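Onboarding guide, step 5: your first structure request.
Type a short instruction followed by the sequence, for example:

Predict the 3D structure of this protein.
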Amino acid sequence: MSANPLLKLWYKIFNKNKYQQLKYNKNLSNRLNFYNAKIYNKILNIERNIENNHELSFLHSGHLGDLMYSLSVIKELSKKHTCKLYIQADKPMDLEYQNHPSGKVFLDKRIINLILPLLKTQDYLDTVKIYEKEKIDVNLDLFRDIPINIRFHSIRWYYHVTGTHANMENPYLSVQPHESIKNKIVIVRSSRYRNEYINYNFLKNEKNILCVGLKTEFENIKKEIHHLEFHDCKNFLEMAQIIKASKFFIGNLCFAYSVAEALKVPRLLEASPDFPVVFPVGPKAFDFYHQNHFEKFFNTLNKS
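The system replies with structure tokens like these:
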């Protein structure tokens, strides 16, 4: 039974500790009621589908990086299932993201058409297409609805939805290296999730660095890396091929980094102090919060 509103008001004014305990109990009760009514049966249904179906259909609405990290669990499930991936276009976001490439939706059709060529090269995906109300066995977007704090390793969001774990040191994306753009230090630094404690000034005279992000991102970071080159990728398959052929990759929490992580190329992650949900896993992979560590790990990969 909920506390009397007048009693709650009295506690709020005269007994802060008691008021905070009542507030916590109320929030916990709401979460449990929502979980039991709206979530757990969906988790059980996903488990039944995985156990009983030879073919599995997956739904994801983005963001791009989130979509990329979900491929780890799909690849693991493809060992025993035929896997079909459907991508939902134009799903509205309930939060405002500054400079989001799809505006106010998770993924628009323009962005989906850029990633489809990359996804269609993955041999463990039987089908990849824009969602058109097909029957779905595993809704990968469910992690957004579960009443938990999602500030933990992004790739694990999907492990907990499906009850399936993969070896995170193994690549879950495969492409051929780019035929002409090779052995570059490839960089993408998006405007979101930056670590403001570090800078790239120590690379100002480095002559082997290539940006494959947006033109605005290139123009911004070129202020620090004077000899930075730019390549406008025709789609995300070409971006992945350039990253695959790179000497190593540098990026913050952005889609391009998720590609480097999926490919397991040598890489450096500019770790986000505000949203720490991505971590390098595997050899020749480092993340950093501090300038001296950034420079040390850069030199380690540059000399290898």
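Each response can be followed by summary notes, for example: DSSP finds nine helices and ten strands in the chain.
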